[in-house]
């Protein structure tokens, strides 16, 4: 049943309105579409909705509308009309499988339609949302054909069918109708069409922002809107992105292929195109820079930053340029150890002033030693995270020159060496470091006694070290040795603890475990074997 109703005119909006009644614009009667068992609703020219939709294949068919188009870009209701008996055209391209190429010259629009509809507004485009809603745009076919290869093909196919109908005696006053079903975002698609009528596209993109411009770029690439694609790429390349916008742009470039000339600049911000040989190891350069940094605050800030980027639990995906090889890491570590030996030689007055580091002569010796120990411990933490610290245990156990200078150095300086040993003890006790028996034995035989001497200073100058954890770790590390070696080291601790008390680590718990394993259980075993 037909019902006439009046609607108010709005331009480029999502309301379903038509101009008010006037002598120049007679009222339009609309009726709700009713299913016709004798005809099928295949009378719209249809195009894929957006690049994100998986239903990108559609069919094209022309539909006649005798109304005159009155204003550009008007949004109006969908009305039922007489079906056009023209054949169904299957010319909608598979947009997701095509790559975008910037043409050398703009496509030549088809000749104007020979109809009484008007020279300006001869296309009615219906955008149907995936989640409901519909927008109808009345547009100029010349603008559509000049800007979009997809719409140029649809309108050209329609006109071929219209010409054949005209020759056979059909009417020539026809309007081309195009339907875009399953549109993900009606507003973005409409904005993309509006860009075809804009004189200053970059200014329009500046107003809508980066995130929305990426959506417009996607729709422009889907309908082969060359001007829109180039404008979006130029705008996006010139502005900064958030991480969310960058990820969205990466996803877009995985679904669409553009020619190198069009996307060279913007892809240069997303990907590293140089060859592997021409790129230096960035991670090694960062580590070297940090270990030679003099400013304390800057060094601590950069250590936290780089360690977060290099650690295995980092949220950032790493490529070969950010991978720090074991050889590079140990190379930096050996350099720090060499500097540390030089500083202790200076502290023990066994080095000439000419061999001292010139750039650090204005810094106190204690500060320079502490900085090198901090560097070694920081590198050791990276090794432990990458599970490549086993070799460092052997390296530290073989530092005979440092051990010799430790005996003669001042307590306020030598305790810095025990800070390195403390990191290794804690790593072994917490099972972050698994190494051979020979390596554990060599480490404890070399650095256990210095640790007993330096423990009082470690308590006073902790520098982030947990003393309770360290005491527990020392006992657990001793218990990993054979009982005969445990006997020697535990007796050494017992005599030292009896003389220095709280200035010595408390290993009573581990001592009890060693005692039980060595004597009580041994006696029980001997008694059982005797019986």
From TrEMBL:
Origin: domain of life: Eukaryota
Pathway(s) it belongs to = Protein modification; protein ubiquitination
Q: Which UniProt keywords apply?
A: Ubl conjugation pathway
Matching InterPro entries: At3g05675-like, At3g05675-like_ankyrin
- The primary gene name is LOC101513811
State what protein this is by name: BTB/POZ domain-containing protein At2g13690
Pfam entry (one): BTB-POZ_ANK-like
Kindly give the PANTHER family that the UniProt entry links to this protein: OS04G0278000 PROTEIN, OSJNBA0011J08.25 PROTEIN-RELATED
Amino acid composition bias (Low complexity), ranges on this chain: 39-58
Q: Name one GO biological process term.
A: protein ubiquitination
Q: Which intervals hold domain At3g05675-like ankyrin-like?
A: 276-521
Region annotation Disordered: residue ranges?
15-65
Q: What does this protein do?
A: May act as a substrate-specific adapter of an E3 ubiquitin-protein ligase complex (CUL3-RBX1-BTB) which mediates the ubiquitination and subsequent proteasomal degradation of target proteins.
Give the classification, highest ranks: Eukaryota, Viridiplantae, Streptophyta, Embryophyta, Tracheophyta
């Amino acid at each position: 049943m037909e019902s006439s109703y009046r609607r108010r005119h709005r331009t480029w909006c999502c309301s379903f309105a038509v101009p008010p009644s006037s002598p120049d614009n007679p009222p339009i009667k609309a009726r709700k579409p009713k299913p016709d068992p004798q005809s099928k609703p295949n009378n719209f020219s249809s195009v894929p909705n957006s690049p994100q939709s998986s239903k990108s294949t559609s069919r094209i068919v022309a539909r006649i509308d005798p109304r005159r188009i009155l204003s550009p870009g008007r949004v109006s209701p969908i009305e039922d009309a007489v079906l056009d008996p023209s054949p169904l055209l299957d010319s909608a391209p598979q947009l997701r499988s095509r790559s975008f190429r910037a043409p050398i010259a703009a496509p030549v629009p088809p000749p104007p339609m020979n109809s009484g509809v008007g020279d300006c507004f001869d296309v009615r485009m219906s955008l149907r949302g995936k989640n409901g809603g519909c927008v109808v745009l009345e547009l100029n076919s010349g603008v559509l054909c000049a800007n979009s290869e997809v719409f140029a093909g649809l309108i050209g196919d329609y006109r071929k069918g219209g010409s054949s109908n005209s020759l056979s005696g059909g009417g020539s006053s026809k309007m081309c109708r195009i339907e875009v079903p399953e549109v993900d975002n009606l507003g973005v698609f409409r904005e993309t069409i509006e860009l075809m009528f804009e004189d200053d596209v970059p200014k329009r993109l500046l107003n809508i922002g980066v995130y929305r411009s990426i959506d417009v770029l996607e729709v422009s690439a889907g309908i082969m809107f060359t001007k829109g694609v180039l404008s979006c790429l130029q705008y996006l390349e010139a502005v900064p992105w958030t991480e969310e916008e960058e990820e969205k742009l990466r996803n877009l470039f995985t679904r669409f292929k553009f020619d190198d000339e069009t996307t060279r600049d913007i892809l240069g911000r997303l990907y590293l195109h140089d060859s592997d040989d021409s790129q230096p190891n960035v991670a090694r350069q960062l580590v070297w820079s940090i270990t030679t940094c003099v400013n304390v605050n800057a060094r601590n800030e950069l250590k936290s930053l780089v360690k977060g980027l290099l650690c295995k639990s980092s949220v950032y995906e790493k490529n070969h340029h950010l991978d720090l090889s074991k050889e590079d890491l140990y190379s930096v570590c050996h350099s720090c150890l060499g500097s540390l030996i030089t500083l202790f030689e200076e502290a023990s007055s066994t080095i000439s002033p000419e061999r001292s580091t010139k750039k650090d002569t204005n810094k106190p010796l204690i500060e320079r030693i502490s900085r090198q120990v901090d560097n070694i411990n920081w590198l050791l933490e990276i090794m432990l995270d990458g599970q490549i610290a086993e070799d460092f245990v052997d390296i530290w156990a073989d530092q005979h020159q440092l051990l010799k200078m430790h005996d003669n150095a001042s307590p306020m300086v030598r305790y810095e060496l025990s800070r390195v040993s403390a990191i290794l003890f804690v790593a072994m006790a917490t099972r972050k470091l698994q190494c051979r028996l020979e390596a554990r034995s060599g480490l404890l035989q070399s650095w256990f006694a210095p640790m007993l001497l330096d423990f009082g200073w470690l308590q006073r100058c902790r520098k982030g070290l947990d003393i309770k954890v360290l005491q527990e770790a020392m006992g657990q590390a001793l218990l990993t040795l054979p009982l005969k070696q445990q006997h020697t080291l535990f007796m050494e601790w017992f005599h030292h603890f009896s003389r220095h008390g709280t200035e010595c680590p408390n290993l009573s718990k581990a001592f009890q475990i060693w005692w039980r394993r060595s004597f009580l259980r041994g006696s029980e075993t001997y008694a059982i074997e005797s019986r």
